[in-house]
Amino acid sequence: MAHVERAIDDTDLTGPRARFALIQLPDQPEGRINLVRHLTPEALWQEHLQRHANNATDLDGVTLAVVDPAAAARLSRLIGCVVGGGFALDLAHGQVRLRPPEAVIRLLAERRIPYRLRDDVLIVEPDAAGGAELRFMPNTRGLSAEQRLV
Q1: pLDDT for 30 beyond 80
Q2: What DSSP string describes 2-51?
Q3: Residue 3 lies in a domain
């Protein structure tokens, strides 16, 4: 476990600091996963720090595109929670949903969220994603060039 900190306000590096406990999990097929505990929530959860240009107020869920449904069980063991309905991990503050790539594409189409495909990467542009570009891509770290092309 690592203990890290950063300034609360990037314009005042000598001011209050946010502290975190961080566990970096071994590489998972789904990508890099970190478990973070806020050690100074009172410093971070201030109304003036929770405003964003895209007017987002919460992040209550994350969807991972995974090829292997066993990922849900593996991730639930890593983070210490039970696999909920289908392939969803219910957390104390939100949910992580695991879906096969074709289900992510179907979900975007059903909700009329524009996306584009470039090679093996599905991209949702910032205009359709609250100001952040979203990329769904296969994890190819550790694979040879020949394996990545398969």
Answers
A1: no
A2: EEEEEESSTT-TTS-EEEEEEEEPPPBTTB--EEEEES-HHHH--GGGS-
A3: yes
